[in-house]
Amino acid sequence: MFDWQFLLLLVSNGILLGLMYALIALGFVLVYKATDAINFAQGEFVMIAGFAVAVAMAAYGAPWWLAAGIGLAGMIAFGFGLERTMLRPLIGRPVVAVIMATIGLAAVLRGVGPLMWGAETRALPLPIADEPLVLGPLLISPIQLVGAAVSLLFLAGFAWFFLKSRKGIAMRAVADDQQVAMAMGINVERYFGIAWAMAGVVSALGGIVWGNLLGVDVHLALVGLKVFPVVILGGLDSIPGAIVGGLIVGVVENVAAGYIDPLVGGGTKDFAPYVLMIVALMIRPYGIFGKQIIERI
Amino acid sequence: MIQRECGVLKTSYAADMALYPLPIARKTMVAIAVLFALVLPVALDPYYLSILNLIFIAVIGAIGLNILVGYTGQISVGHGAFMSVGAYTAANLAVRLDFPFWLSLPLGGLMAALVGAIVGIPSLRIKGLYLAIATLAAQFIIEWMINHFTWISGGVQASIEVPRPTLFGHGIASQLEMYFFLLVFVVLAVVGALNLMRSRIGRAFVAIRDHDIAAQIIGIDVFRYKLLAFAISSFYAGVTGVLYTYYLGIANYEQFQLGVSIDYLAMIIIGGLGSILGSVFGAVFITLLPIAIRWAMESFGGALFSQQAVLNLIPNLRLILFGLLIIFFLVVEPEGLSRLWRNIRNYFRVWPFAY
């Protein structure tokens, strides 16, 4: 007999988890949309932000809202600084160069975090109840609910930003063609900085939510590896794509883990999204909502 | 290598195309051959020989990756996994079927080439970032399969013990014997790659790197050559994996995780993309980096930090320096160490004149 409740539980958790993935994927999409740069260090951004918040709370006794503010401000400064020092010299260079530079950045951040703040796992306590909410057959953990809500809020906010605000439209112009945007009087470099700072903001939020869920240590950066299936499925330059991709990945990995893990002995969670992604790459490489690029000489 | 063209007159195309067109380059090669074949093995003790052996293994892998990334322009973040394919193929053949190394080594390489070519199939439609992510997926999927299919990985802790390679009934066990064993393969890899790159295939690779659509228009079968690049590069990776397995005496997937793929990418970026000599420089550099950091910290770190802090410092410092070096070379000297070497050489080419 098929257990509907079990499936429902897996799907509902998958949806919440997927929205939290979408939050991190959003940071990736923002940068790609505006600057055409690929950020392989997204997970490390989240980890560093989590570290900053957790350390501010534990070592300096800051209340959670102050620590979160410090994390946000720090990540904004980090985003601007990074763009100025590392990414601006790489403008106009092959894709491989930017990919490798962010991989290098990931290594640096993974070394700096534990070096400055220690290798042990830190708790990131938020004033949110630990006990799961019981809704009929469903068990929902409050932090996942908060994470999902934050992520929906910001996704809606960024969607508005790109569609309606003057800065957002300028950023889309920059993404479309840097030279033409420059000719139209848009300060391209400034918008690059803003895009990286926005990625920093999103990463800080991701760091707080995921840090509360998993605890803050080097392994928090592994969340970043889930970003790639999400953005490939949804489309690299699409904000709704980040949500849809996140939902698909969250549900698929939870359901696959629930049904396949007992058969093979674990690890399906990390593996299933990538299989899904390979299939997506074969069929629609530009993603569900992504823009198809036509190449000319 | 070192060049002084003065007084050299080439009278045939063959002379112009030669690997070492100048008399001084030939003499340098002889000197290097003597150094590696006769001087170093006698002069160095086993500890330094073991470092050299690790460098040899890294050189082969770095050249393989450079053929794909540097010459053909297709990125791969999955080379660690291709190495593990070679390693486990050879280990299974050696243990279950009692194959000698001269059979299991090429077979391991061929298996890796096959897997690499399959992973390379999407490269026709996708490129750049998408290819990077697809190969990243291949890394995870291959790692997961090796870890979960016990008939590949031999069950407990996914590791297989491999017997020492034997030559004419003599087991290759000591570092010195390993040194000569690996040296043969390094020479084969370097000469093979140098010759490949001045052949029709190598030129097709470079044309695809520079512009794949333009390459197609001038009559290069882009798909075929991309797959070929993946296959050749993965063959090198597979052989690297097999050699590392024989060197360690055990096949273990933990030696071939994502970090290894990134290490090799760092080697070719620091060494120089699209340069065989650069691959060698990069392999030397990245292999020596952790050893140098460990040595420096153990010698001088105690003066500044407590013993416990030093132990915590070493792996983190390695990561930080490693990442900073990648960024530094990409931003400041994208053509890597091989370009620095070329600059020095060009300076001395006309020395003592300015130009």
Name the average pLDDT of chain B: 84
Amino- and carboxy-terminal Cα gap of chain B: 19 Å
Number of strands of chain A: 2
Secondary-structure element string of chain B: HHHHHHHEEEHHHHEHHHH
Structural class of chain A: mainly alpha
Total DSSP helices of chain B: 15
Plain-language structure description:
The complex is a heterodimer of chains A (297) and B (355). Chain A has eleven helices and two strands; from the N terminus they run H-H-H-H-E-E-H-H-H-H-H-H-H. Chain A is an all-alpha fold. Chain A has a two-stranded antiparallel sheet. In chain B, a hairpin with a 2-residue loop joins strand 2 (166-167) and strand 3 (170-171). The model of chain B has no long low-confidence stretch (mean pLDDT 84).
Task: Give descriptors for this structure.
heterodimer, A: 297 residues, mainly alpha, 11 helices, 2 strands, 72% helix, B: 355 residues, two-stranded antiparallel sheet, 15 helices
